Amino acid sequence: MPLEKAMISSFDQLSLQESEPVSAKKVAGAGTSTGAAAAAVKIVPSRHSVTNTSHSGDASFKSKPQDTLLELVNTPDRGMAVFTRRKIKAGTTVVAERPLILLDKDKEADWAAIEHEFAALSRTDQKTYLRLWDAQKSRMSRVVSIYYSNCHNCDAFIKARTSQPAGQNGEGQGEGDGRVNNKGGGSAIGAFCSRLNHSCVPNVQFSYDQASNEMRFRAIRDIPKGKEVCTNYDRGVFEVKAHRQQKQLIHYGFVCSCDACQPPTEFWAKSDDRRRAMYEAFRTVQACEKRFGGGGSRSSGGGGSSDGSSGGSRSSNGRTMKEKESVERRAVVNQALTALAKLEALLLKEGLVGLPLANTYRSLAKWAERKGDGDGDGGVAAATQWKRKELEVCLVIFGEQARRTREIEDTLKRAD
User: Fold this and answer.
1) Threshold 0.70, pTM exceeds
2) Phi, psi (5° rounding) for residue 36?
3) What is the dotted CATH code of the domain comprising 42-160+176-268?
4) Spans of the chain below 50 pLDDT
């Protein structure tokens, strides 16, 4: 079961500047380890996706994908775990449930707000909530501790809301002034979602659909029958095993036993090498972003030469400073594109084909557009190709109705 997702994204996160925002609050807790498979002690019916009457409107039970695709198993070494009942294809929604509690960003640190939301639940939902994992956070009530032990970060999926403009509430009496009254973001806790264990090579991707108020997990690759369904609690996908396990012990109380952590083959024994190379590529892109934003290696903040002359003056080799800067910026762009291409290949090889891969394609599109049309395969054409790659991944991990998917499609339509 998830042991501690207190304000931490439950999906693997590529922390490029253009990546989705994610909260980083961490609270130490204890728990159990995860593994590729375990002997089942007891099969538990998976009808734990109880809706929350305070958020769902209709509290009647509706059939959910987890009811037919998944089963809860009480394992001997790590508590409750989720396994597939049959083979599942990539892009399949395997979990969809309305949260028991959904908090706006500004309420996440408010313990009283969590207690208030819990009190608003039906008695059945309260019992379901209290059966979830409790990492027993110090100085917290049980209700608050359970929330911080299991909540999923929704920052990337919840838009800011504005109050209604005056005179437009349908009755001629406006109650708002059009100003932002919610900055977006937040977190949620779900009954079934809380049962998913961690893997450093996850096979599902988390998302939250604001329109339907549903927490969702989609298969990011084909999942065989009888395989455990795992998400990634940690945003640091580029870290080596020793660093990951150190954090797991401190913040979660377990040591992961996935293929990347306990290599069963020579291929997985090289996982740390691949992740080191990912980190190097990632840092290269970060450095390029700073250099590009700072105008390369200009010697003066105003763009002029060091002697105070204008940026259009000739240098000793006959080129203007502007021409020199243009050459430097092209070099930075090419370096970033090379690093991102390397990162793409490493992510695919490691099997990290969820959000980190989508964000890498988004970065490739941005840098290709920066390259401009007049240099080989750069420019708008290449940017469009990378944007289509991003769309392909988002269709799998988020679905065609997801906000990010629709935004990419709109961008591509404008480019046509």
Assistant:
1) yes
2) -70, -35
3) 2.170.270.10
4) 1-61, 166-181, 297-312
